[in-house]
Write a structure and sequence with these properties.
The chain has about 300 residues and is of the alpha+beta class. It has three domains: about 100 residues, no CATH class; about 45 residues, LysM domain (Membrane-bound Lytic Murein Transglycosylase D, Chain A, Roll); about 130 residues, L,D-transpeptidase catalytic domain-like, CATH 2.40.440.10. The chain is globular and about 60 Å long.
Length: about 300
């Protein structure tokens, strides 16, 4: 067991020192310890201005609304007192997947853009609601369109019969100004004309970004770029000494036992004695979506 612990510490030191990456498979690492990932970003805060809501705070920082709301449960999201300090979800454990292309983790409603050198860009997204979930799979960026026309699916027209068969480009188009198809499917990554929807389960399965963020992503991501869509509510990270758990809700109700699911990786690595299990339980229950220290490495 000591030898395994030494290998784990050495591997994590390499990860932390290089922002580097062990080779991993699409939806999990080759070795369990490779699923303990580095952290990116820093903790940050926002001072509420008179009249601001948490929706406004989310938009100012181009973050997701639900992530901010969960992290600041003590605040009224619609009338937070001026001068209140809002914690922002700007630090994250990287997903346990190879660092290439685009990686979307549905439960955390974030997209990781690995297409440039250095740390990835971390972008807030909206995903499909439970009735129309975002598909979890591997894709490549397919057709790209500027000012897309929305061909309204029959299923949506059945729900909203007032909609036309097509919605032209413009301010009423829910696709925004940019569209990138996920493979050969009918799903895509696109902008929006409803900025308050970002950071929510608010689509019919597509992945939606703030309009200006999507336009920037569109420009730097070529056709054929790999896209991995994950369903990973619990992510384990380390800075080389401390173990962090980042817990998110289970929006599609796919996890039968959340506590056991969160403990699966540390149990596999024989790290349970190194954890404060009460902290793990609390972190899972609160699902605040930020890295929380819950233990130490051997």
């Amino acid at each position: 067991m000591l030898a395994q612990g030494g290998a784990l510490v050495a591997a994590l030191a390499i990860l932390a020192a290089t922002a580097g990456w062990a080779q991993a498979t699409a939806f999990g690492a080759d070795e369990p310890w490779q699923r303990i990932r580095p952290l990116v970003g820093t903790d940050s805060e926002h001072l509420v201005e008179p009249g601001e809501t948490l929706h406004d705070v989310a938009y100012v920082h181009r973050l997701g609304f639900e992530g901010i709301r969960r992290l600041n449960r003590e605040l009224d999201p619609w009338i937070p007192p001026a001068g209140s300090v809002v914690r922002l979800p700007t630090r994250a454990v990287l997903p346990a997947v190879e660092p290439e292309g685009l990686v979307i983790n549905v439960p955390e409603m974030r997209l990781y853009d690995f297409t440039s050198a250095g740390d990835p860009r971390v972008l807030a997204v909206a995903v499909g609601d439970p009735e129309d979930p975002t598909p979890v799979s591997r894709f490549r960026v397919g057709e790209k369109r500027v000012d897309p026309v929305w061909n309204v699916p029959k299923s949506i027209r059945a729900e909203r019969p007032h909609l036309p068969a097509q919605v032209p480009a413009g301010p009423d188009n829910p696709l925004g100004t940019r569209w990138m198809t996920l493979g050969a499917t009918s799903y895509g990554i696109h902008g929006t004309n409803v900025k308050w929807s970002i950071g929510r389960g608010s689509t019919h399965g597509c992945v939606r970004l703030y309009g200006d963020v999507m336009e920037s992503l569109f420009e730097r991501v070529p056709k054929g770029t790999p896209v991995a869509v994950l369903y990973e509510p619990y992510k384990w990270g380390s800075d080389g000494q401390t173990l962090y758990l980042e817990a998110h809700p289970d929006p599609y109700d796919r996890i039968p036992n959340h506590f056991e699911a969160a403990l699966a990786l540390p149990r596999q690595l024989d790290l349970l004695p190194r954890l404060d299990l009460d902290l793990v339980w609390e972190t899972v229950q609160r699902a605040e979506g930020v890295p929380t220290p819950v233990g130490t490495l051997p």
